[in-house]
Every structure is written in structure tokens, then in C-alpha cells.
């Protein structure tokens, strides 16, 4: 599944750039961008925390900060969503630091099955439980990489943009995180 907001053609990128420029001139014209990206940003935040009130607060803050800082936004040939997701990541981290929320990973049975294929040959309930335990033992940045790649189906290019690193660096770090997950998995009894 592709994140269609990230895989835009040049016509759509240019159309979005014009919307952004219009919104910079008149904040009331931010509406189309808000409507386009509210749901993806909300889902991104929701997948990482349990408290719905905090999810609402963080999502709202993303758009408040986006409007307040829109004048600083520079078009770099990437969708506006990459900038919004970086703001969302920052707001999530702030919520975790302020202890307003606890980090959550929402798991999908299909994704767990795919991860099992990467880690072990025998996809049993015991191994699934072991995998879930292994995920909790990863460092936060490792879990974030695995989450983005496997659970959100993001490309390495998109992961790199969201985490402000090169696409190649995103590949390498994701590979290392997956290897660490395998090591933890294999050590558990």
C-alpha cells in the first residue's frame, strides 16, 4: 500500500505548492490543506498513543504550528505532508516528554505475520508473543523505524524525509533495527 499523499506527480506537487503560497498570503486559504492532511496526521498520532483526548490535542497542535509557521515553509519538491509529519513527530515527542501520553504501537495481524516471515520460519502463537515482547525491548528510535516501515508501509525515501536523513541512511538504520529485533527475538526463551 502506497502513501498516496507522498507519491505525487509533478502536477499535483505544483498544485499543492500554489495552495501553500495562497495560504501564506491568506491563512483562510489553509482549509484545503487541512482537509487533505487532517486524517493522515490524526492516524499517525493515534497509532502512537492510547489517550484519545491527547491524540486530539497533539493533532490540533500540529495544525496550529503549521499555520503559525507557514511563512517559514520552503517548497523542496516534496509533498507538504512531509513537513506536517515532522511537526507531528515533534509534538508526539513533546507529549511523551511531558508525560501526557504513553507510547503505543497498534498492531495489525497481517503486519505481525509479515514480520514473522522476516524473523523466523515458524509462525506460531508462541513466536508471535515472543515477537511482541521483542518489540517492547527495542530503543524508541529502532521501534519508530520498524513502525514506519512495516506498520505504516512507508518507503525508505519517506522515512528519510520524516526523520531528516538520507534515503540510504533510512535503509541502513531500518536494516539495523530489524537485525536488533532478530537478536532480541532469538535470545528470548
Proportion of residues in β-strands: under 5%
CATH class of the largest domain: Mainly Alpha
Mean pLDDT: 82
- Give the CATH H-level superfamily of the largest domain: RNA polymerase sigma factor, region 2, helix turn helix motif
Basic shape: elongated
Count of DSSP E strands?
0
Q: Characterize the biggest β-sheet.
A: none
User: Roughly how many Å is the radius of gyration?
Assistant: 18 Å
Low-confidence stretches: 1-6
Topology order in helix (H) and strand (E) letters: HHHHHHHHH
* Helix/strand structural class: mainly alpha
Write the layout of secondary structure elements.
Elements: H1 10-25, H2 31-46, H3 52-68, H4 80-97, H5 109-119, H6 125-136, H7 140-151, H8 156-162, H9 167-187
Key features of this structure:
mainly alpha, Butyryl-CoA Dehydrogenase, subunit A, domain 3, 2 domains, 0% strand, Rna Polymerase Sigma Factor, Chain: A, elongated, disordered N terminus, 189 residues
Structure in words:
The chain has 189 residues and is an all-alpha fold. The chain folds into 2 domains: 10-97, Rna Polymerase Sigma Factor, Chain: A (Orthogonal Bundle); 109-187, Butyryl-CoA Dehydrogenase, subunit A, domain 3 (Up-down Bundle), CATH 1.20.140. Helices cover 69% and strands 0% of the residues. Helix 2 (31-46) runs antiparallel to helix 3, helix 7 packs across helix 9 (167-187) and helix 8 crosses helix 9 (167-187). The protein starts with 9 loop residues before the first helix and ends with a helix. Mean pLDDT is 82; it is low at 1-6.
Amino acid at each position: 500500500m502506497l502513501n498516496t499523499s507522498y507519491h505525487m506527480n509533478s502536477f499535483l506537487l505544483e498544485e499543492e505548492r500554489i495552495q501553500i503560497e495562497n495560504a501564506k498570503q491568506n491563512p483562510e486559504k489553509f482549509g484545503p490543506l487541512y482537509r487533505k492532511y487532517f486524517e493522515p496526521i490524526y492516524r499517525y498520532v493515534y497509532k502512537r498513543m492510547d489517550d484519545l483526548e491527547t491524540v486530539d490535542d497533539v493533532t490540533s497542535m500540529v495544525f496550529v504550528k503549521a499555520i503559525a509557521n507557514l511563512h517559514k515553509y520552503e517548497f523542496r519538491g516534496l509533498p507538504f505532508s512531509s513537513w506536517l509529519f515532522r511537526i507531528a513527530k515533534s509534538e508526539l515527542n513533546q507529549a511523551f516528554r511531558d508525560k501526557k501520553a504513553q507510547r503505543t504501537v497498534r498492531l495489525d495481524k497481517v503486519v505481525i505475520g509479515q514480520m514473522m516471515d522476516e524473523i523466523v520460519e515458524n509462525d506460531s502463537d508462541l513466536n508471535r508473543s515472543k515477537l511482541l515482547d521483542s518489540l517492547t525491548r527495542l530503543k524508541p528510535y529502532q521501534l519508530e523505524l520498524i513502525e514506519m516501515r512495516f506498520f505504516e508501509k512507508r518507503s525508505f525515501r519517506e522515512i528519510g524525509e520524516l526523520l531528516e536523513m538520507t534515503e540510504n541512511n533510512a535503509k541502513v538504520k531500518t536494516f539495523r533495527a530489524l537485525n536488533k529485533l532478530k537478536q532480541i527475538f532469538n535470545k528470548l526463551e
